[in-house]
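Worked Example 4.2. Consider the chain below.
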Amino acid sequence: MFIDSHCHINFPELAARMPEILGKMAENKVTHALCVSVDLPDFPQVLALAEQYPHIYASVGVHPDYEDTPEPSVEQLVQLADNPRIIAIGETGLDYYRLEGDLEWQRERFRTHIKASRITRKPLIIHTRSASADTIRIMQEEGAGTDQGGVAGVMHCFTESLEVARAAMAMGFYISFSGIVTFKSAKELQAVAMEVPLEQMLIETDSPYLAPMPHRGKMNEPGYVAHVAEYIAKLKGVSVEQVAQQTSDNFFKLFSFAKQA
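Applying the procedure from the previous section yields the following structure tokens:
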């Protein structure tokens, strides 16, 4: 079985095709998926999917790219996360690629999510782009990792260096690879994937974005996560069954609030 540890199937382009999306998941042996929150106004849609479908889980959080959106408080995130269908906090983190200027609000928002994670004991889903040094620094300062009493989480859609991966793994975080790892141009990322132990790895689609080969350029969906697993298996010289089993085990170990449907 495969698990898509990060998708956005509540986005309109996928939500309009939900029966087809779920059917393709089953067809490709994708047994579960985590639908990830990006802002509070759309959070009810994310939660509704998880409440309707036993094999879909949800998170609560506000993405660092969303500047003009209601700012979450620690108390609000803790309250919204008090639901058995919510298994994670995020996605959160830092993104210096798309936004410029004074981004202290991003850093404060990130700290808010880490505090909520520590209170709820629900893992973090971390997004970092062109901001790895500050991301790791704030994770350490706020005690996000298991080494400081936090519950850790996952570095989602990982595209950073091996050094960043090792720093995150030292704090108990898992490294999640998306369809990007299958791209011919992603040689550096493939080298990182070779070094990350299967025991600390997750796989994801980040759909509707970043469709893996051979679907690159098309709309992505959870059923395609099997292609990520197949590529990782070839890269590491192991069976796809081993990648599927280990990453699925990792998912339920990390997201301990998830009940297997």
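The longest helix spans residues 104-120. The chain has a mean pLDDT of 97. Compare this with Example 4.1 before moving on.
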